[in-house]
UniProtKB/TrEMBL annotation, chain A:
SUPFAM superfamilies recorded: Methylesterase CheB, C-terminal domain
Protein name: protein-glutamate methylesterase
Active site: 13, 40, 133
Residues passing through the membrane, by range: none
Zinc as UniProt keyword: no
Species of provenance: Pontibacter virosus
TrEMBL record, chain B:
Domain CheR-type methyltransferase: 1-276
Organism: Pontibacter virosus
Entry keyword set: Methyltransferase, Transferase
One of the protein's GO biological processes: methylation
Molecular functions (GO terms): S-adenosylmethionine-dependent methyltransferase activity
Top-level taxon of origin: Bacteria
Protein known as: CheR-type MCP methyltransferase
Length: 190, 276
């Protein structure tokens, strides 16, 4: 059953590729909620993340095209050099304005925009990283009564990002990737 | 801003867009909202303003302040040889065909401060086409057009631009194209000798010429689907048969009504060619 009234947004930096891969590998091809993935990477690097995820996941991994509609069964990857925003009609808008937290794509930008559109139906997940990007976005999701999840700092390859998020959003859930995956599976089809 | 204030904020933005149209003639109604909200929140933060109400006080009493607002709301972030593979592809797949025309007309739509324009001019120069090419460089914003015309840029990014130039298949010493002076660089005026600069608003103005190549990269991402469709129709009217349309790497004609009249020259770099 498609459920595009909800959205899962996942952010990560250093160590975030591996962590998000582990989580997403356990999800079925018909997973009902669309997923947006914002991972920091080197500027002007092209394509390869999409290929990597598409090869390893049963879900369909694609880079976000401007104005593409959200569909279930898809993992949408933020393209290099663009911020990813969500519109009220559940389509994407891309944005190539200034870096935020030294990053483009910025996790804060996507998390906040997702929460503006999906409110309490937003699930934000922040993974490993050596950056503070994502913590204010995760707080924004939490304040909008969405679900805020942070990868357990002890498990994260780099704990800077999870620790920053736990500090800014003390009410978040702190889970290891296995538990995060299990949680996402409980959302499937409900 | 507190999330619960957001619904009110969004309503106020709609009213503001209507007021700006009435007072200054700029129509932002077709702009992608997610981005407009973000730009306005950012502007409020920069100016230490608490609300749209505070913003209105300045916006409609101070036209200089409005100019500044316009500058910030319309994104002008740009760089030279952004996506080097795009320029490489343009050089290898498009310019050889354009070289068969006796005279070439190019439209750089939404040229901003001119980084893309300089990149195009250098490419045309190196392929021996600049002398018989006329480039129309347009933007909604007169201030950035003046900057583009001056061809002066901060030296800060020159290392990155030089690397991008070579990655794009640059054939010369990049430093040949500019002179450095006190932290800024001025590009040779000969690069823009055949360029006409003028204000054009993609949201409201019409077609003004016919072109062999239209370059409009990462401009339409700030528009909603309806306004994008208007602009695609405008481009279609402005392209000769077999003309080329170059969009940003993540922009697509797929959802547009003109899509069936175009084929990919390079799918990865979103270079399209109009069918005959």
């Amino acid at each position: 059953m498609d459920d595009t009234s909800r959205l899962i947004v996942i952010g990560g930096s250093w160590g975030g590729i591996q962590a998000s891969m582990k989580i997403l590998q356990g999800l079925p091809a018909d997973y009902s909620i669309p997923i947006v993935l914002v991972l920091h990477r080197l500027r002007n690097q092209e394509g390869s993340l999409q290929e990597l995820f598409d090869k390893k996941l049963v879900l369909k991994a694609e880079e976000v095209d401007d104005k593409a509609p959200l569909e279930s069964g898809h993992v949408y990857i933020a393209p290099a050099n663009y911020h990813v925003l969500l519109e009220k009609d559940h389509t994407f808008s891309l944005d190539d304005s200034e870096l935020e937290n030294y990053s483009r794509p910025s996790i804060d930008v996507t998390f906040s925009s997702a929460a503006d559109v999906f409110g309490k139906n937003t699930v934000g997940i922040l993974l490993s990283g050596a950056s503070k990007d994502g913590s204010s976005g995760l707080k924004y999701i939490f304040d909008k009564r969405g679900t805020a999840i942070v990868q357990h700092p002890g498990e994260a390859e780099i704990s800077t990002m999870p620790l920053a998020a736990i500090q800014s959003t003390p009410g978040c859930s702190i889970l290891n990737v296995e538990r995060i995956q299990a949680y996402l599976l409980t959302l499937h089809g409900h | 801003m507190k999330p619960e204030q957001n619904e009110l904020f969004e309503l106020e933005v709609e009213a503001l867009i209507r007021e700006i149209h009435t007072a200054y003639g700029y129509d932002f109604s077709g702009y992608a909202r997610a981005s407009v909200y973000r730009r306005i929140k950012r502007f409020l933060g920069q100016k230490h303003l608490q609300s749209i109400e505070d913003l209105r006080k300045f916006l409609f009493t101070d036209s200089f302040f409005f100019e500044n607002f316009l500058q910030e709301i319309t994104v002008n972030v740009t760089e030279m040889f952004r996506d080097p593979t795009f320029y490489k592809s343009l050089r290898e797949n498009v310019l050889p065909i354009l070289s068969t025309y006796p005279f070439i007309k190019v439209w750089d739509a939404g040229c901003s401060t001119g980084e893309e324009l300089i990149s195009l001019a250098i490419l045309l120069e190196e392929e021996g086409l600049l002398g018989r090419t006329k480039i129309y460089a347009t933007d909604i914003n007169q201030k950035v057009l003046r900057q583009a015309k001056d061809g002066i840029f901060s030296a800060t990014h020159m290392t990155a631009y030089t690397a991008a130039y070579y990655a794009a298949g640059g054939k010369r010493d990049f430093a040949e194209y500019y002179t450095s002076n006190y932290g800024s660089v001025k590009f040779n005026a000969s690069l823009v000798r055949n360029v006409v600069f003028y204000p054009h608003n993609l949201a409201t103005d019409s077609s003004f010429n016919e072109f062999h190549l239209i370059v409009c990269r990462n401009v339409l991402i700030y528009f909603n689907r309806t306004l994008q469709e208007r602009v695609y129709q405008l481009f279609d009217e402005s392209l000769v048969d077999l003309g080329y349309l170059a969009l940003g790497k993540k922009e697509t004609l797929a959802m547009s009504g003109i899509s069936s009249k175009y084929s990919f020259v390079d799918k990865n770099n979103r270079i399209y060619r109009k069918n005959s």
